[in-house]
Amino acid sequence: MCEAITHFKVPMNYEDRLWCLGPDGSAAHVRRVMTVLSGRWKLPILFRLFAQPSMRASQLLRDISDISQKMLTQRLRELENDGVIQRRDFGEQPPRVEYSLTSLGLELMPVLIAMRSFSQRNAVPSSVT
């Protein structure tokens, strides 16, 4: 019964506890990544940009059903501010802007693909989502 209690699994000495739960510990690092990815539309945007390396906003708007122009613009800006995607303005008339993953975004994709594989292998109850 004691094995099921999670606080017994946290390291008890101070250094190991900080490594796990401290302000710069494992939980903090994972939380920071989860914050970048949080939101209904960020994952679909990232997977589309992974599938097609450079896309215009109008293409993303067509590909991701039910997203509004306003929401797409907000999420693109957030992902750009987080350094996950880059915006390339060609300075042409009419305006042409394309979005693509940065090296940071490309580095994140194997983690997301591993999470997808985990989900496919392990049926997650619908009440979790």
TrEMBL record:
<dbReference type="GO" id="GO:0006355">
    <property type="term" value="P:regulation of DNA-templated transcription"/>
</dbReference>
<dbReference type="InterPro" id="IPR011991">
    <property type="entry name" value="ArsR-like_HTH"/>
</dbReference>
<keyword id="KW-0805">Transcription regulation</keyword>
<feature type="domain" description="HTH hxlR-type">
    <location>
        <begin position="20"/>
        <end position="127"/>
    </location>
</feature>
<dbReference type="Pfam" id="PF01638">
    <property type="entry name" value="HxlR"/>
</dbReference>
<keyword id="KW-0804">Transcription</keyword>
<dbReference type="InterPro" id="IPR036390">
    <property type="entry name" value="WH_DNA-bd_sf"/>
</dbReference>
<keyword id="KW-0238">DNA-binding</keyword>
<dbReference type="InterPro" id="IPR002577">
    <property type="entry name" value="HTH_HxlR"/>
</dbReference>
<dbReference type="InterPro" id="IPR036388">
    <property type="entry name" value="WH-like_DNA-bd_sf"/>
</dbReference>
<protein>
    <submittedName>
        <fullName>ArsR family transcriptional regulator</fullName>
    </submittedName>
</protein>
<dbReference type="GO" id="GO:0003677">
    <property type="term" value="F:DNA binding"/>
</dbReference>
